[in-house]
Amino acid sequence: MYPTVLTQLARANPFSAPLFSLQKVEEPQQSLHGQRTRRLAAAATADEDVSCDFGSSKYYALCGFGGILSCGLTHTAVVPLDLVKCRLQVDPDKYKSIGNGFSVTVREDGVRGLAKGWAPTFIGYSMQGLCKFGFYEVFKIFYSDLLGEENTYMWRTSLYLAASASAEFFADMALAPMEAVKVRIQTQPGYANTLRQCVPKMYAEEGLWAFYKGVVPLWMRQIPYTMMKFACFERTVEMLYKYVVPKPRSECSKSEQLVVTFVAGYIAGVFCAIVSHPADSVVSVLNKEKGSTAVQVLKKLGPKGVWKGLVARIIMIGTLTALQWFIYDSVKVYFRLPRPPPPEMPESLKKKLGLTE
């Protein structure tokens, strides 16, 4: 029998590793057509009409499509705020604040100037969303199969972190070229006004390296951001249903579930912005200046400089992340994809912990 207090602590702490070890218990194996099946507790779906199997090729493809919509549309919608944020980071002497940044930009470039960089933003972040959300689902199931049902439950936060980091590694390689183009258009007035003007000019000056020199700082910015985005979202949803929502998820309507998704997404977005902002500042300056390295830019900005534009980014990323999760979950609802409820402790683990008779 395990100590009751220790068990309660392990279950209550959302981010810790298990505080106990398990003894091996022989259990009857469940089989399907002679093969043992392993099912993630979080992947268990309610008895509802779904259009495909959880973890099928169609499921992954539609999740990727949801990622395209959620990231491509939302990032394009906040291009004006992103433009001002980037200019605050690279030229703080000229752009004093968010309000001042908007007024200076409109005075110099007109209202249309606020939309600079929309095309590379839409293309780049659509490709990033495809890889981010699509590969997250792939890696989450892959790592879960490696861990097994019980370890998946106990180490679920670590699983979310590992799956999201793996997905973002590939997503940033898809994003890097268009991110470099976007920042060059937004932060160097007169360099180029459109995607078609900027790409050949950058290639002629610096070659292919111009589009990928920011990929390492992108990893520095986006991987911690995405790890926080997914892990914090998953655990926040779990806690909202456990402590805030007055009825079980199975009794909530689809609309009510989407409201929970939006709230959890916004909470996750605030933490995402704080975690990734220093690297975001480095990326903005690096893509503006030729021949600079990430280390050089970091030394130039200093401890205070890397936090310039944080308020604008919290507003932008908080709203952005909430909308992304809302759109992504809405796509799952529309296409009737399996939407697993928050994970519950497997019965076999409850027996090992002495939580059931």
Automatic annotation (TrEMBL):
Molecular function as annotated in GO: phosphate transmembrane transporter activity
UniProt Solcar repeat ranges: 58-142, 155-239, 256-334
A single Gene Ontology CC term: mitochondrial inner membrane
Pfam families per record: Mito_carr
Catalysed reactions, as listed in the record: phosphate(in) + H(+)(in) = phosphate(out) + H(+)(out)
UniProt key word DNA-binding: no
Superkingdom: Eukaryota
Alphabetized InterPro entries for the sequence: MCP_dom_sf, MCP_transmembrane, SLC25A3/Pic2/Mir1-like
Membrane association type: Multi-pass membrane protein
Family: Belongs to the mitochondrial carrier (TC 2.A.29) family.
Subunit architecture: Interacts with PPIF; the interaction is impaired by CsA.
Protein name, per record: Solute carrier family 25 member 3
Higher taxonomy: Eukaryota, Metazoa, Chordata, Craniata, Vertebrata
UniProt gene name: slc25a3a
